[in-house]
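Reviewer comment 2.1 asked that we show a complete input and output for one of the modelled complexes. We chose the uridine-5'-diphosphate case, as it is the one discussed in the main text.
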Amino acid sequence: MLACDDLLHPHPHVALLPSAGMGHLTPFLRLATQLVHHHCNVTLITTHPIVSLSESKLITHFLAAFPQVNQVEFNLLPLDHTTANSTDPFFLHFETIRRSAHLLSPLLASLSPPLHALVCDVTLISSVIPVTESLHLPNYILFTSSAKMLSFFSYFHIYASKAGDDYPAMLGDVEIPGLPSIPRSSIPPLLLIPNNLFANIFKVDSPKVTKSNGVLINTFEGLEALSLELLNGGKVVEGMPPVFAVGPLVPCDFEKGELGNNQLKWLNEQPVGSVVYVSFGSRTAMSRVQIREIGHGLIRSGCRFLWVVKDKKEEEGLEEVVGHELMESLKAKGLVVKNWVDQGEILGHKAVGGFVSHCGWNTVIEAAWHGVPILAWPQHGDQKINAEVVESSGLGMWVASWGWGEKDMVKGDEFGERIREMMGSELLRGQATHIKEEARKALGDGGSCEMTFKRLVAEWKMKS
Ligand code: UDP
Ligand code: UDP
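Response of the prediction step:
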């Protein structure tokens, strides 16, 4: 029987609009599972075309697991690449969606029952907000990075305006009210290159955050209390809408690929906490020279390891990329693979005791969820700002002098030494375990996550 309140205010209908890349799609699908759990009707808007095979596979698995989720396809207009100032397929896809946004209007208006809200990716906001405004539809943002990065993103237009026409030359460190200053060297490098696509999107989107009804973010108090407090207190920028900490958004069953049988078998044979897992996310390929230094460093560390190699040439075999001789030496202590792995399963395996990571935000949250200490090696984008969170929360260590991985070389000896340091640190292990406990509390019965979703659902019902 329906409760009286449900008759008055039926379950809210929420549409989700992700943008490109696994790092953006994954948190959206995890959010969708939470919304279903909290009795929302969910429509997933998928773009056509889509950038990568991994994304289309993940969407298929998700829809098979959640048949109650409605899927609608959003056909994008072709983009004239010569007008976009970028060669990155993911940024170009952001831009394609942005330039097609006006076509969303009839699509959103045609959904039945009528929508209570749209949650869109942060990289789309300045083109999507006018659409939702014209439909009088509440607009929420899913921010796919840290609360510290959200502070930086919201404050960015104020920071950039200080340089006026001299942007970006005249800019120094970023002094966000209430937060420790963010050094210029931690700013996503593309933002310091005038006129590239990423910087342009970032600049026009930054002042638009305050036009949304709320920001959902994949983090929790136990990891980022200060940033959340400042954002919600309106200290970072005036007029900030409520920031809903819906994290940790953790790996779900529909994401489970086949963890290569030999990986699982090998991990099962290793002592508890002895293995360092080394991976740099779904997008970061490294130079051959750096790959080989990493290989030498792993041997030098004396630790067991599971290393996921990502080369610029997807089709090249592992032996070619790493080199036959080095590969033979590596086999003595570890496992090296060059394919997509089930990261959730690896981080949750008892043999894994440490993680060398680029600090993509989903990855940081996954490591926090499993209490695995991180040795941060940011490669590009938001990753240094995330590495600051890793370090200041106690989840891991960051060797800031290594610089940006995509630009500066780290020698094998140094790499190996730091791995030994992380794997040997009782202090880091204790801190990471504490953060894991906080993450479990946040997601547990009556935890902050449940409270936050209840607040959101109540807000959406009121807006009906
Ligand atoms: N970002 C943002 N607004 C934008 C573009 C990017 O806030 O208009 C943030 C977002 O949090 C994103 C991060 O910058 O996750 C880094 O973006 P990038 O595309 O470099 O990395 P990705 O996460 O897509 O791999
Ligand atoms: N991931 C995975 N297997 C891989 C590489 C990545 O499962 O071999 C997942 C990882 O668990 C995370 C996402 O892909 O959920 C990557 O997102 P993140 O924000 O960490 O970094 P990005 O890949 O966008 O740089």
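The longest strand covers residues 41-48. We note this here for comparison with the apo prediction described in Section 3.2.
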